[in-house]
Prior knowledge:
The chain has 14 helices and eight strands. By secondary structure, the protein is an alpha/beta fold. The protein folds into two domains: about 1-180, NAD(P)-binding Rossmann-like Domain (Rossmann fold, 3-Layer(aba) Sandwich), CATH 3.40.50; about 185-325, N-(1-d-carboxylethyl)-l-norvaline Dehydrogenase, domain 2. Strands 3-2-1-4-5-6-7-8 form an eight-stranded mixed β-sheet, sandwiched between helices. Helix 3 links the parallel strand 4 and strand 5. The longest helix has 23 residues, at about 180-205. It is globular, with a radius of gyration of 19 Å. It starts with a strand and ends in a 10-residue tail after the last helix.
Amino acid sequence: xxxxxxxxxxxxxxxxxxxxxxxxxxxxxxxxxxxVSAINTIHRNPTYLPDLVLPGSVRATSTFEDTFAGRxxxxxxxxxxxxxxxxxxxxxxLNGTEIIVTVSKGIEKDTFMSMTQVLTEVLKDVxxxxxxxTLSGPSHAxxxxxxxxTVVVSAANSRTTSRLVQEAFMTPMFRVYVNHDVIGVEVxxxxxxxxxxxxxxxxxxDLGDNAKAALLTRGLLEIKRxxxxxxxxQDTFSGLAGVGDLIVTCTSExxxxxxxxxxxxxxxxxxxxxxxMSMIAEGVKTTRSVYEWSQHLGIEMPITEMVYxxxxxxxxxxxxxxxxxTRESKEEILI
Length: 335
């Protein structure tokens, strides 16, 4: 297949290696001319994954129009808050036959749309909804780029599309399962980033392993509450896109969201942390979106609420923890 990857961040760069190893013709689009030049000349991405040597056959361009000519699959690896803008630019470049895959994890502010929903809305009348899918699961770019064993899921409304995505990405070290619960997969992938910020706060404030285990368990419940309210299957949250992605994002040193939380737990301010980061922590914007969404729907998500207040209302993390621990006593209900 001829595959274009839109976005040469760490994830887009790592996936270009996966796709190339499967024999695909891979073209990587980046906004930054210096990244394009480096990929095409020294076969490295100097800003993201600088230690990774890219295969010489992976090409890059900063010319948006060139990215779409004659391509079979378009992989959107842009940050979630830029998805609509990039999709709108792409709309007039598509011929309608392409398979569209989002690998971004987030919820759009104000609309509360998932990434496949944004793509479906923007690309309507050009790309069939059945041609749009997502790839998600426990998968840090740093490990995927080094060929570490990774297992994810492909989800789409069309079984044909989900299997095409599976076949396109499946390698001996990058295993892909098919999951048909698109909204469940996307809610899990987005909301776990909020829980990773909370987990980082637990670690940074040295609150202990007991607290972290409780956080992951109750955090998974919040993900499940939101997902099932939107029609997702409970089973999804016990799988790779749910508990699998939650575990790796809340515990890994590669997790940017955990990094943000860790330094907040150490007493630093959000703006100071973000200014020194070269990559985006999706969970920060997602926290605002999901908190407002939960308020709109009337869904109880106390961890999400406290992360929101810590990030955007400068609530002291220890006060937030105390409020969670002293909530009204109740029975454990797992839905």
